[in-house]
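F.,

This is the one I mentioned.
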């Protein structure tokens, strides 16, 4: 009898894994169970071109629906896996049915962190994770509307850029003292804050939202310092939580993510996990990580597919991520934790520069702002653990490619 590989979740990691299983020659049964109504789709455009109305729904799908039937991949959409029985190797579905598997991939992703404060159940308060979230927001996305965004992270700032461009009156409220403070240096935050303020977005820091006011629908946002901001619409972007409960209940080890090894395998034989839901070791970076990025979802899914086919494809990638705000593309490569020196190369005023994070002169990470070359080279430089002379790195008269080539030569010698 042919083997069955079940995939829980139908997001980017799941879609990639199913595709990779077939590419690797797996001829058994593949069944993907997803609680949304759509075939696997890309989320990044949800806070960018799709929200702006510049992208058709169909273009979000990573593959057209017929791809799955063409490759004999069974989709059970609008269906939630309620429990995993590892002793009988079966999944309990929320429609009462049971699904047997031989091997399992958990690609359950993450969900938005919600605010639980007075007024949080008022109409007009939105989160942004799914296509349906965007469709609900778009109904109120009208010029002149007053939008309050809670959180100055990537999602909040991307939405702010789209909204202000549509003539919406945008206020961003952030508890911390600067934008994207979890991921970028103060100098990079300052650049983005200026970018948004020049576009007309009101960004306020040190504002802890403590309640939403209104009757039926939200009309104001109340902060802990007593300030009140009028609102017709609110979008909350305060981070995500990995979906680990299903795995945890089945005895799969979880620790701020489903814990997997470099082959995407969990502690339970026959069960792998990939994407936003995992915590995994990254030997290149020498750390254990939980990442929220498309690159991670796709690459880890390829590794998981190899493992499920009985092959070995260690997951060892330099993490990278991007964000689009107005005409600015931010590309981040590497992990900047523990940096002791920041070198800026290029000119923030020209909207094109790169921030290099060094530790004892070793390159840890780069934030490339409209600087694709620095980003691309960074993918090679970071795993090679190259070192730079900060003064040379900051000097725009020295060609970056030459600096990079020399740094790589020294690291290899
Ligand atoms: P998901 O895409 O979350 O898919 C998991 C799926 O599993 C979901 O559909 C979920 O509902 C389903 N599921 C969970 N539990 C069950 C269950 N028990 N039964 C059935 N189904 C279940 N990344 C970037 O690199 N660059 C960007 O610019 C960027 N922009 C983003 C913008 C937005 C608005 C969002 C929301 C994310 C963005 N990301 C970006 C992050 C990126 O989209 C995620 O890292 C990626 O989608 C993770 O893929 P995944 O398959 O692990 O999880």
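My design for it:
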């Amino acid at each position: 009898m042919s083997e069955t590989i079940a995939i829980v979740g139908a997001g980017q990691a799941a879609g990639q894994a199913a595709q990779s299983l077939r590419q690797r020659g797996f001829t058994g049964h593949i069944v993907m169970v997803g609680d949304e109504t759509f075939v696997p789709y890309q989320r990044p455009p949800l806070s960018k071109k799709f929200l702006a109305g510049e992208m058709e729904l169909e273009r979000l799908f990573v593959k057209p629906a017929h791809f799955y039937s063409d490759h004999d991949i069974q989709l059970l959409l609008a269906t939630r896996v309620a429990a995993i029985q590892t002793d009988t190797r079966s999944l309990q579905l929320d429609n009462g049915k049971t699904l047997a598997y031989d091997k399992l991939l958990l690609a359950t992703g993450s969900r938005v962190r919600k605010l639980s404060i007075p007024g949080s159940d008022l109409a007009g308060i939105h989160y942004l994770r799914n296509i349906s979230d965007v469709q609900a927001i778009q109904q109120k996305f009208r010029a002149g509307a007053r939008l309050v965004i809670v959180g100055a992270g990537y999602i909040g700032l991307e939405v702010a850029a789209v909204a202000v461009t549509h003539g919406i009156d945008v206020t961003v409220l952030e508890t911390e003292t600067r934008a994207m403070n979890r991921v970028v240096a103060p100098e990079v935050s300052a650049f983005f804050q200026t970018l948004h303020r020049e576009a007309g977005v009101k960004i306020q820091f040190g504002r802890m939202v403590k309640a939403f006011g209104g009757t039926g629908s939200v009309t104001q946002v109340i902060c802990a310092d007593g300030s009140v901001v009028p609102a017709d619409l609110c979008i909350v972007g305060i981070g995500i939580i990995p979906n680990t409960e299903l795995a945890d209940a089945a005895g799969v080890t979880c620790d701020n993510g489903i814990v997997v090894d470099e082959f995407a395998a969990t502690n339970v034989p026959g069960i792998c996990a990939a994407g936003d839901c995992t915590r995994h070791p990254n030997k290149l970076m020498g750390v254990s990580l939980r990442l929220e990025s498309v690159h991670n979802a796709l690459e880890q899914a390829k590794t998981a597919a190899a493992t499920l086919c009985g092959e070995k494809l260690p997951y060892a990638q330099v993490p990278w991520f991007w964000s689009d705000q107005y005409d600015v593309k931010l590309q981040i490569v590497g992990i900047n934790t523990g940096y002791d020196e920041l070198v800026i190369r290029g000119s923030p005023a020209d909207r094109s520069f790169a921030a290099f994070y060094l530790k004892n002169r070793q390159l840890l990470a780069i934030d490339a702002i409209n600087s694709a070359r620095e980003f691309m080279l960074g993918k090679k430089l970071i795993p090679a653990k190259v070192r730079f002379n900060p003064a040379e790195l900051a000097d725009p008269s020295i060609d970056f490619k030459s600096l990079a080539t020399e740094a790589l030569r020294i690291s290899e010698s």
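The domain at 327-412 is CATH 3.30.390.30 (Enolase-like; domain 1).

Talk soon.
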